[in-house]
């Protein structure tokens, strides 16, 4: 076979698992929790294999490059995928026991898309991977359309449709922009824009940027985020809120810092406006929310703002800290949504009032939620502290003084609403006193997130180093 | 001279950290062991042992004092005596571990102190390159210099005593081990704050103490309002922290290093450049903003009285002796930054003096014994900042140390009273306790005497030194001095009012229901040690007129030299002996006179309070609510913000963006119906947004390329 | 006034054309009587439409349509491969058959799930 196929070992393995799951379902359906656990374990195997499969190289014509950057993202996405599967096992096995396989298969296809995306250096491959990542997500979003407590409106179908329409529109924007870019530059290579591009190329790139802005949920392209988070099934939202965003940020980095760094004065102001607006709107709109998932949706918008801020530093350090930030965000946000899922599964609903008494009923669940929220707020001894601090440091070093001051000030508001969520778990709830029932898989997922969040809070060095090596794949030098 | 190979220094913060981890494990094991009982629903009741009962609304809000009794009983109903005490199980070992960790850290602090004699100015551990990626490097060392050794001795010494006390105070609490885990974690963070060689480590400690304070204020979160108070304290602290972070970034930009000693050494080199001098002033201002948050100064002081919702040992350790002094520490640590700008110094002094006055006058009318002490703490911290404002770094640290002694003593004494009175905090329901609780009474007297500045006690020397420095500066500082003297009078008055209401006079409680009793010796022995320290602590810094050298000032000389050198450029302010004697005498007279007035007014009971409340209700309410500052925040900041966000949430979010999700409310009958409505309404809005956003970006782009 | 920007010129022309059409229709249209029962009908010639236009097709049709897409995609890739089958060699052969195999897994799954059962 070709000399470069081994570069795709992990991606092919993920696709193979997806096919296996589908075949299993075709010939021996309704397999209880076995499908989910098998998927999780096989993915774990792929994750472990990523430390031994160390193929590095470039596919002919530079279409795909597998370097430290890709390795970092592969592991990040695999970790998110494993946790996403783990967190869904109990829910799927009880709610839709006969339709589990499609959920896992779709999630795996999306995962394969993300993993490929990180290495894509050609517009066609990039867009294909982007769509491979996105399309299963539309389906998954509406997966539990009849699911949920009787007291709440069934919002999953609506959430799915919203995600689909905005996603399709953003893909349309991206493709239209790319048509202009490729037409003007005459190459499909991402790095083909070069210095002093023609105005039409710039207009094309603006559409590309807008399209990616949708995917990461940056203001003003964020409207789908809270609606989707509120409506879609919570274990899936956990995955949706982290992995595709990390992929979107990776794409932005590839396109802007990798492909178009020669003319940063054109896009940097736009990026910084997106960053500042996301921080402001995300934090301020999160304040009055009463639905936990909606609040976290806006919080996610704000967090993307911080990540974009570090990206705007345009340095290797800044990019490394973007990666560090995103990686800690992955574990933190997965954890938050899993705990909320556990609480809502039994209590019915995600309004803040409905998680009252959680700390008393299940102290460990409440404690875990508090740890995740503190991490989101950027408090010491948990991962989020370093993430925020490093992001601010790099942005400050890059001279983005005003935005850093804005971000630091808004982080105070962030602390307020995160603590409000935490406080609502402390409030008395006379009705229910028994511990919240959680399945083993969900507990395991929460525990893994907790270990990462606390572990990285105490010892961030390995991840910082990995992120730094990865960033060198896009931005060389200092 | 610095010794830079002192690896053992790491053990000072590491011991409490290890203690915290062990206590955390004990907590986990205890909870696990209790699990079977939980299955029968026993955990549904809020049994905190003896402490949970009846803290009432004391710390909830000032106005709650009037309906205090009712609130008490409401809580009593929830957390009554009827429950069996929780078996401590393994958590009984937690205080041993925690106290041992503290005592070990204290022993090491003494070792460090002994090593700092003579020409040795600092002990330093080897730098640990904590993160080093080649492009991104952070290293950290532990530095025990003259200043941090004083802080470390106070933190670990007073901390050890408070840990011992807490072993008795928290006995029977459901989360006994967790309490010590948090307490030790706090000490770790506080030690990181004072021992770090660079701004980053300091910031970790700075935020870390805020976190632990949040945990500990909200320790009894099941009662509801402590969780609220914890959130308020944490967020207000975070406002200060944000200011601190920006200030540190400015410093890093100016000096190109995170290292504290490099920053201190580099200040004088910057002053030639007016632009850099301005940035230095800005950095100092932002850092002072951080200090205001941590040390509860105007305008960020309102969280400290509410923080009294935490258990009393927490109030003593965090909200009197250590965390709230972090701002003082920071200012002294970076003293040349402040010394470079006389205007900034005056500003700091003015903030301190005004805070001292507002808080001192508020303490005059409080009924809750812990709130009196809380406002008193704010007021005394104001004194320290007044001292810093005059450039009297050593005097501020001196007052910090003596204050740690006597205020920790007073808080612990108050805790003992509350404990003995079955969780009563309202002084109007006390009285005549001196015969019931003799050990608490005598130690409390020592603390009160020191706080009110009775001659020859520790508080007398430290406070008068600050006032003398303020007086010596002349000019506008004389106004601050006047405020300081007025506050000193109030301090004496409210302190002895508190003593009289609590210990003197007739018993105002129902002897059939309340049987005041002395606390166990595990609580009274720390009180006695602190009482001795409060009485003799003044020996650390006797004024020159008494024919001795100021030991503490001399000790801190290597740390304050840089700032003092800058101050000397603006001229020195020395007092002649006659004036100094006069000031000392004035301080003594004021303390004695107002002590007498306070006792006379309240020894007979609560009549004076009622008279004030009826003859000048407006003034009483004004003072009760700390000059209405908290209420003003609510009215002019919180409410408008809430209104704004309500508008944001309802109008923008719910109607336009979220219109179809929540607005419809009802569950759609069919999917098709739902989709149709959605596409006709909401998605169109999205399209509008999308177009507008794309247009905006297009505009930005086209503007760039002109 | 000289219009310098072609973009502005384009916008003006676009709005002018669209606006003039609307205004023209408003002015020139033949007014029907409001009372006429024929006015709201679909075909003014009098033919009554058979059923509403917004009929829903049964979900089965969508499944069939998706099946079509599976084979459509397959064909779309097989044709170009067939043109260069010699040059692509063994690697191309394996690649295309892997591709078909993957599609067939999806097809197999769908069939097993009863996607082709009409009832």
Q: Mind explaining what this structure looks like?
A:
The complex is a heterotrimer of chains A (478), B (706) and C (119). Chain A is mainly α. Chain A has one domain (5-471). In chain A, 72% of the residues lie in helices and 1% in strands. Chain A has helices at 9-27, 34-49, 68-95, 100-117, 123-141, 156-185, 199-216, 224-231, 234-240, 243-259, 264-286, 292-311, 316-347, 358-361, 363-377, 383-397, 401-426, 440-458, 461-471, and strands at residues 57-58, 65-66. In chain A, α5 (123-141) packs antiparallel against α6, α6 (156-185) runs antiparallel to α8 (224-231) and α10 packs antiparallel against α13. The longest helix of chain A is centred in the C-terminal third of the chain and has 32 residues, at 316-347. By secondary structure, chain B is mostly helical. Among the domains of chain B are: 1-50 and 85-197, no CATH class; 627-657; 667-706. In chain B, the strands form 2 sheets. Chain B has a 3-stranded mixed sheet. In chain B, strands 3-4 form a two-stranded antiparallel sheet. Chain B is globular and about 80 Å long. The model of chain B is unreliable at 37-84 and 656-681 (pLDDT under 50). In chain C, α2 packs antiparallel against α3. Chain C has helices at 6-28, 59-83, 85-112. Helices cover 64% and strands 0% of the residues of chain C. With 119 residues, chain C is mostly helical. Chain C has 3 helices and no strands. At the A-B interface, α6, α7, α8, α11 and α13 of A face α6, α7, α25, α27 and α28 of B.
């Amino acid at each position: 076979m070709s000399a470069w196929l081994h570069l795709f070992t992990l991606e092919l393995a993920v696709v193979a698992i997806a096919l296996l799951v589908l075949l299993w379902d075709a010939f021996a359906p309704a397999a209880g929790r076995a499908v989910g656990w098998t998927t999780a374990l096989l993915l774990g195997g792929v994750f472990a294999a990523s430390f031994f499969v160390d193929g590095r190289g470039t596919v002919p014509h530079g279409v795909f490059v597998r370097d430290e950057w890709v390795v970092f993202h592969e592991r990040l996405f695999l970790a998110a995928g494993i946790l996403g599967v783990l967190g869904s096992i109990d829910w799927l096995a009880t709610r839709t026991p006969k339709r589990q396989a499609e959920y896992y298969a779709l999630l795996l296809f999306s995962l394969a898309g993300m993993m490929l995306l990180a290495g894509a250096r050609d517009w066609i491959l990039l867009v294909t991977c982007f769509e491979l990542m996105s399309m299963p997500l539309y389906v998954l979003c509406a997966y539990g359309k009849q699911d949920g407590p009787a007291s709440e409106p069934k919002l999953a179908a609506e959430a799915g449709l919203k995600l689909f329409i905005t996603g399709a529109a953003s893909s349309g924007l991206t493709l239209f922009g790319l048509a202009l870019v490729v037409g003007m530059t005459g190459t499909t290579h991402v790095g083909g824009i070069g210095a002093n591009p023609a105005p039409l190329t710039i207009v094309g790139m603006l559409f590309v940027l807008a399209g990616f802005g949708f995917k990461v949920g940056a203001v003003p392209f964020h409207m789908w985020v809270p609606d989707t988070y509120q409506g879609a099934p919570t274990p899936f939202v956990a995955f949706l809120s982290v992995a595709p965003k990390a992929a979107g940020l990776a794409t932005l980095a590839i396109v802007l810092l990798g492909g178009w760094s020669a003319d940063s004065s054109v896009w940097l102001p736009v990026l910084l406006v997106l960053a500042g607006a996301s921080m402001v709107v995300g934090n301020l709109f999160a304040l009055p929310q009463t639905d936990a998932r909606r609040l976290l949706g806006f919080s996610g918008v704000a967090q993307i703002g911080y990540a974009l801020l570090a990206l705007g530093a345009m340095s290797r350090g800044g990019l490394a800290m973007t990666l560090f930030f995103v990686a800690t965000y992955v574990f933190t946000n997965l954890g938050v949504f899993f705990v909320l899922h556990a609480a809502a599964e039994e209590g019915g609903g995600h309004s803040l009032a409905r998680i009252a008494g959680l700390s008393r009923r299940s102290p460990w669940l409440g404690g875990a939620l508090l740890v995740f929220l503190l991490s989101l707020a950027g408090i010491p001894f948990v991962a989020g502290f370093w993430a925020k601090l490093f992001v601010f440091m790099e942005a400050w070093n890059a001279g983005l003084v005003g935005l850093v001051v804005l971000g630091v000030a808004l982080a105070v508001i962030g602390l307020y609403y995160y603590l409000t969520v935490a406080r609502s778990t402390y409030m008395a709830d006379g009705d229910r006193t028994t511990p919240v029932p959680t399945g083993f898989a969900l507990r395991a997922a929460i525990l893994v997130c907790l270990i990462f969040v606390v572990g990285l809070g105490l010892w961030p060095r390995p991840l910082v180093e990995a992120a730094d090596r990865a960033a060198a794949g896009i931005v060389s030098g200092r | 001279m610095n010794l830079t190979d002192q690896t053992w220094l790491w053990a000072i913060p590491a011991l409490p950290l290890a203690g915290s981890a062990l206590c955390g494990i004990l907590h986990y094991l205890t909870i696990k062991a209790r699990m079977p009982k939980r299955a029968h629903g026993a955990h549904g009741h809020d049994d905190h042992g003896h402490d949970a009962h009846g803290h009432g609304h004391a710390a909830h809000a000032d106005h709650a004092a009037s309906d205090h009794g009712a609130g008490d009983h409401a809580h009593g109903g929830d957390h009554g005596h009827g429950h069996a005490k929780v078996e401590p199980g393994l958590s009984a070992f937690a205080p041993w571990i925690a106290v041992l960790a503290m005592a070990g850290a204290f022993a090491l602090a003494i070792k460090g102190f002994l090593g700092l004699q003579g020409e040795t100015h600092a002990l330093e551990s080897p730098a640990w390159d904590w993160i080093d990626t080649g492009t991104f490097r952070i290293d950290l060392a532990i530095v025990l210099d003259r200043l941090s050794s004083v802080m470390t001795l106070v933190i670990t010494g007073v901390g050890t005593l408070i840990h011992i006390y807490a072993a008795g105070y928290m006995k029977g609490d459901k989360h006994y081990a967790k309490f010590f885990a948090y307490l030790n974690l706090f000490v770790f963070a506080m030690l990181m704050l004072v021992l770090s060689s660079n701004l980053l480590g300091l910031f970790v400690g700075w935020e870390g103490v805020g976190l632990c304070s949040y945990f500990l204020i909200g320790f009894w979160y099941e009662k509801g309002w402590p969780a609220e108070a914890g959130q308020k304290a944490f967020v207000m602290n975070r406002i200060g922290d944000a200011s601190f972070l920006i200030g540190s970034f400015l410093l890093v930009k100016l000096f190109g290093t995170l290292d504290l000693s490099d920053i201190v050494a580099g200040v004088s080199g910057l002053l030639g450049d007016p632009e850099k001098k301005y940035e230095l002033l800005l950095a100092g201002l932002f850092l002072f903003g951080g200090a205001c948050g941590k040390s509860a100064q105007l305008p960020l002081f309102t969280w400290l009285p509410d923080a009294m919702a935490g258990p009393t040992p927490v109030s003593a350790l965090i909200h009197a002796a250590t965390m709230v002094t972090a701002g003082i520490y920071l200012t002294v640590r970076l003293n040349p930054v402040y010394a470079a700008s006389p205007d900034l110094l005056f500003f700091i002094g003015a903030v301190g003096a005004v805070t001292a006055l507002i808080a001192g006058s508020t303490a005059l009318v409080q009924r809750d014994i812990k709130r009196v002490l809380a406002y008193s703490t704010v007021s005394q911290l104001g004194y320290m900042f007044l001292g810093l404002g005059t450039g009297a770094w050593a005097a501020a640290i001196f007052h910090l140390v003596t204050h740690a002694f006597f205020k920790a003593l007073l808080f612990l004494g108050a805790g003992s009273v509350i404990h003995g009175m079955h969780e009563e905090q309202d002084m109007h329901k006390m009285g005549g306790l001196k015969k019931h609780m003799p050990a608490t009474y005598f130690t409390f007297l020592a603390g009160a005497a020191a706080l009110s500045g009775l001659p020859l006690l520790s508080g007398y020397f430290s406070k008068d030194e600050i006032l003398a420095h303020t007086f010596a500066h002349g000019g506008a500082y004389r106004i601050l001095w006047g405020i300081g003297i007025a506050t000193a009078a109030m301090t004496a008055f409210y302190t002895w009012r508190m003593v009289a209401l609590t210990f003197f006079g007739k018993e105002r409680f129902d002897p059939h229901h309340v049987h005041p009793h002395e606390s166990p010796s595990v609580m009274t022995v720390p009180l006695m040690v602190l009482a001795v320290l409060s009485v003799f602590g003044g020996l650390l810094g006797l004024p020159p007129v008494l024919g001795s050298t100021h030991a503490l000032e001399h000790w801190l000389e290597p740390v304050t030299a840089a700032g003092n050198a800058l101050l000397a450029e603006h001229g020195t302010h020395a007092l002649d002996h006659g004036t100094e004697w006069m000031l000392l005498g004035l301080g003594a007279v004021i303390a004695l006179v107002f002590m007498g007035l306070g006792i006379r007014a309240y020894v007979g009971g609560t009549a004076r309070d009622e008279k004030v409340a009826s003859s000048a209700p407006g003034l009483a309410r004004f003072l009760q609510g700390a000059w209405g500052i908290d209420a003003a925040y609510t009215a002019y900041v919180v409410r408008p913000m809430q209104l704004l966000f309500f508008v944001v949430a309802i109008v923008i979010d719910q109607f336009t963006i979220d219109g179809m999700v929540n607005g419809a409310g009802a569950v759609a009958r069919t999917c098709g119906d739902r989709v149709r409505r959605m596409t006709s309404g909401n998605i169109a809005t999205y399209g509008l947004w999308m177009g507008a956003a794309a247009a905006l970006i297009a505009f930005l782009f086209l503007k760039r390329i002109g | 006034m000289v219009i310098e920007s072609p973009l502005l010129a384009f916008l003006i022309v676009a709005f002018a054309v669209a606006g003039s059409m609307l205004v023209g229709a408003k002015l020139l249209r033949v007014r029907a009587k409001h009372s006429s029962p024929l006015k709201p009908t679909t075909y003014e010639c009098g033919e009554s439409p058979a059923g509403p236009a917004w009929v829903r097709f049964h979900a089965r049709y969508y499944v069939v349509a998706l099946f079509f897409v599976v084979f459509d995609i397959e064909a779309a890739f097989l044709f170009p491969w067939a043109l260069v089958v010699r040059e692509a060699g063994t690697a191309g052969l394996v690649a295309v058959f892997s591709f078909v195999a993957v599609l067939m897994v999806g097809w197999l799954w769908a069939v097993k799930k009863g996607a082709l059962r009409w009832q």
